[in-house]
Specification:
Blueprint (H helix, E strand, L loop, with lengths): L4 E4 L24 H10 L3 E7 L1 H4 L5 H17 L7 E5 L15 H10 L7 E4 L2 H10 L2 E5 L13 E3 L2 H10 L11
Helix pairs in contact: 1-6
């Protein structure tokens, strides 16, 4: 039986927005992140990171710098008591390149669905940009726009809006997926 997932953007959603973050010392978890991740994991969701990292494709930072930032994010999540992410996907492509993986395209979510056996119709995409919301919509998930990072932008039509990830956890708890498998599945 397929399980549902919470797909999460990185910058402005899990950690403070830093333009083209290439330095682990600039990683700062946003408030409530660990608590939200614990709640979702306890409810049986996969936790999947899906992040555009065009700074690599633009030549602003290296793949090694991306991995160093990711390791620091994982370290801070662990230190805060968050459960581990089940998977992490990133797209290094820079616009105007069209890529099936670069949000708003749904490629990273579709890849994760294949890799982990995810029921996209029972899943959620959470991010702070219109491209995150559109990616989730194209993949067939429900969407939450968090107002951290760039999330206060007008005109983004997500299924739900939330001040932060902690509020997003409340929204999802009030609107559970009908066919979500239990944690032991």
């Amino acid at each position: 039986m397929k399980r549902a997932a919470i797909f999460l953007d990185r910058d402005g959603t899990l950690m403070e927005e830093v333009d083209y973050c290439d330095d682990p010392s600039r990683v700062r978890l946003l408030p409530g992140v660990a608590e939200a991740l614990r709640q979702w994991k306890a409810a049986g969701y996969y936790l999947v990171l899906a992040t555009n990292q065009s700074g690599i494709g633009r030549g602003y930072f290296t793949l090694e710098a991306y991995h160093a930032v990711h390791r620091e994010l994982v370290r801070q999540l662990e230190e805060a008591g968050a459960p581990p992410l089940d998977a992490a996907y990133f797209c290094p492509d820079a616009p105007p390149t069209t890529s099936p993986r670069r949000k708003p395209a749904p490629g990273m979510l579709l890849e994760a669905a294949d890799d982990l056996g995810i029921d996209l119709s029972a899943s959620w995409m959470i991010g702070d940009k219109g491209s995150d919301v559109e990616c989730g919509r194209r993949a067939g998930t429900r969407t939450v726009l968090v107002e951290t990072g760039y999330g206060e932008a007008a005109g983004v039509q997500a299924d739900y809006r939330a001040a932060d990830l902690k509020e997003a956890a409340r929204v999802i708890a009030q609107n559970p997926a009908i066919d979500k498998a239990p944690p032991s599945a």
